[in-house]
Amino acid sequence: MTPHRKKAPFGITTLEDISTLILQSHDLDETLNNIVSLVARRMRTEVCSIYLLEDDHQSIRLRATKGLSRRAIGRVVMRIDEGLTGLAIENGRVISILEPNKHPRYRYFKETREERFHTFLGIPLFDRREPIGVITIQTVEPRQFSPEEISALSTIAFQVSSIVVNARLLDSIRRKEEESNRFARELEMTRKNLREQSREEPEEAGAEQEYRTLRGTVAYPGVSIGPANLLDERLGFADILDEEGIVPEKECEKLEGALEKTRIQTLYLEKRMADRFSADDAAIFHTHLMILEDRGFLKRLTGEIRDKQHSAPYALKKVVAEYIEGFSRMDDAYLRERAADMEDIGRRILANLVGQKTHHLHLKNPGILVAKELLPSDMATLDHTKIQGIVTEAGEKNSHAVIMAKSMGIPAIVGVKSALKLIHPDEPLILDANSGTLYISPSEQIKDEFERLEQDRIRETSRLEKYRDLPARTRDGVELTLRANIGLIGDMAIARRNGAVGVGLYRTEFPYMARSDFPDRNEQYHLYRRIIEGFGGDPVTIRTLDIGGDKALPYFTSPKEDNPFMGWRSVRVSLDHRDIFRTQIEAILMAGVHGPVKLLFPMISGMDELRGCRRIIKEASENLAREGIEFKEKVPVGVMIEVPSAVYLADRLAREVDFFALGTNDLIQYVLAADRNNPLVSKYYDPLHPAVLQVLKDIGQCAERNGIGLCICGEMATDPIHMTLLLGLGFREFSMAAPFIPRIKGFLGKISLADARKIAERALELEEGSLVREQIRRDLLTHGIKVS
Ligand code: PEP
Ligand code: MG
């Protein structure tokens, strides 16, 4: 027998450590593993293991070990009437044995490789009086444990017992919770299904029913109250029947005449649309003209007349229906939406064919427009000053209704099933396009409530009006620059109305998205020039195409990707399509002659990409010079910092660019691995996460160190709490959706830079995003600023 080893620092400290371990651990197995490691270390034994009784009460299973093969965990199961561990349970007392392999109850499990051990100590674990497992110790050298050691181990066994019991209890509570959550989910599904059904067959307004509601998808948020303006009186194909005894030549002539008239009207619609909206919005009528002149379309029409002896209207009905059917079956949302164009064209030809005056949609009074769908020609002809809201049955995201609503800032919901059937002309409506709900014939009480909200909104808007022409200034007089993020041409007016100082981010993919083909260099040049000139000398930062991720170009096939946000997107696409990329840069350089413009590259993740972009700028300049076209030679070049690798390379990037644009929308999603559009992980998408704050601080310092410009252009700056922090961290230039500008100016006027700095300093100390938010909210309150 070897002499007694020097006593290890066991006892109270070990018990305290175990309590800490229990507090820190997240689950039973982790806790047990931590305990066995600690005990083996403190007792200087080669092995410490924990076995727990199985549900059958007849066998025990190895749950944690330090010293035996880890592969044995969960695998070694023994009956309680075999082996020494079982004996500890059977006898319900401590078993301490030298040379265990000589004991009659010894049982060898090859998975454990325990033949090397000469000492075995087993202490049973109890739940009240019932044994629930065993903690065992084994040593290579034969060893006698002191009574103190055994007593300390027994105390540990007692503690382990209680955590096992607690863990099992928690487990059963968790299972119950899961069950009740599942039940709640099922209940919600059932309710949803019922709601879906009631969308199709809504309850009739009964005695107790004060109003009816329909639901749809929000296309443009806002609230609107007004009577229903139904748009259901268009000339349709339903009444067109075939005729007997037609003269094909005559029918073909009639058709040709109608087509010609329609072509002229289409040119007129295009012009009208360009005047009212923009050349981009009008581009859709180019497509219509192309269809009206398409040989395939015309051949099919005349084929139906000549070969099948159909009348011209009937031939038209057939061919248009086939086209619509074909488009509707397309996978691609953009192509599906072309069915609406086909319907629009078909109706207009039909009107000309049957000699009916094109039905111009005259809205008598202002109201909420309810339509099956909004066709491109509706966009051109409707008097939009009378449209207070838009509700459509069709629900495609690319629909013209959505584009129209957005560019005019009209609250809109789409995908409202059977709306035309369920709403009567002039019926009072409340459109809550924040939640996607339409209230039909609401009670006075509901109307009052919405009117009050609407009044509040109007008051708030006019209160903020005064900020439009004032500079963005903190309470202690520090001036900031607030620019606008824009996409469609309509955003220009909104930006100016809200007092934006130029454009910090022009997302050029938006005009590309609203078209049916890539715009050529000249078209892009005119568009960019119009924007640059529209901001009267304030700089406009034009970002090159940022497609991919959630932004697809309808006419540009991109591969189906499992992970599009990590995929072929943004500058990666541009660098792989040099012609498209060069054309865009040439257009930007040409437009640069008309005012201050900056060139911004998105999603840069390494120096090679930046240098690739620089090479394209060089090629573009050489091309323009060769062609003798005037262009701006020295345009400031910047990169978006929105990928973690760019954060790490920031100093190197800074040496080769004129400015950074910090795209917090993407940056947050990539830093935190939380999809910016996925509600399931929205709680992880936290702009105030300490890791995000650290990145922001580092990038701010990097830009300052390198003496380059820096603009924050993600949505982050639209929230006063975030703004406080950004201000305190030293940022001075921001770009945001323009409607937020007056609000942020109003907020800035209440806070001093000195206070913001202190608040940011404190925030950087905190370890959780929610704590940061709470702290800033509290700090602002101490300065008399209440934010929600
Ligand atoms: C961003 O990522 O923060 C950004 C401004 O760009 P986008 O939202 O267009 O990706
Ligand atoms: Mg981005």
UniProtKB/TrEMBL annotation:
Chief site of localization: cytoplasm
Keyword Secreted: no
Keyword Cytoplasm: yes
A Gene Ontology biological process term: phosphoenolpyruvate-dependent sugar phosphotransferase system
GO CC entries: cytoplasm
Family named by the database record: Belongs to the PEP-utilizing enzyme family.
Domain GAF: 27-174
Pfam families reported in the protein's UniProt record: GAF_2, PEP-utilisers_N, PEP-utilizers, PEP-utilizers_C
Reactions catalysed, as given in the entry: L-histidyl-[protein] + phosphoenolpyruvate = N(pros)-phospho-L-histidyl-[protein] + pyruvate
Cofactor: Mg(2+)
Subcellular location: Cytoplasm
SMART domains: GAF
Keyword terms, alphabetized: Cytoplasm, Kinase, Magnesium, Metal-binding, Phosphotransferase system, Sugar transport, Transferase, Transport
GO molecular function: kinase activity; metal ion binding; phosphoenolpyruvate-protein phosphotransferase activity
TM spans (from-to): none
EC number: 2.7.3.9
Protein name as annotated: phosphoenolpyruvate--protein phosphotransferase
